[in-house]
Design goal:
42% strand; globular; Nucleoside Triphosphate Pyrophosphohydrolase; alpha/beta
Amino acid sequence: MAAPDFVLKLREKIGNDPLWLPGVRGVVLDQDNRVLLCKRSDNGHWTPITGMLEPGEHPAPGLIREIYEETAVVAETERILAVGVIGPVTYPNGDVCDFLDIAFKCRYVSGEARVNDDESSAVEWFPADELPEMSPGHLAVIRLALDPDQPTVFQME
């Protein structure tokens, strides 16, 4: 997965030093409460749809863009599930990033889920009780999305 151009330009100036970046994560649910997940091509892990916002991009439309780019699914954001910080993350090339993560519950609108770019090796719908292995943080936001009475969580890991 290539870094966005704006990150590459910043890296030319600051090298591997820590970089604060805005990120979004979407738990997309269909009418049967199945969860849309992608299997990342860089590490093979299953995750909800995630992405980095472009400079000046609003989080909700940015996430909808990411969902479509990665899965060919059209979705709508319904509510913010959690806001937190992920990191620091150190990449193999030495770059260090911290991400402001805004997680949304999203509703499926249309489209046939499929791999739609090079960031994923698989895209699938999973019943909520048959999720593949994934990080505790991803599982936590999925649980938040499935429970309509949960308030927005801050300081999510």
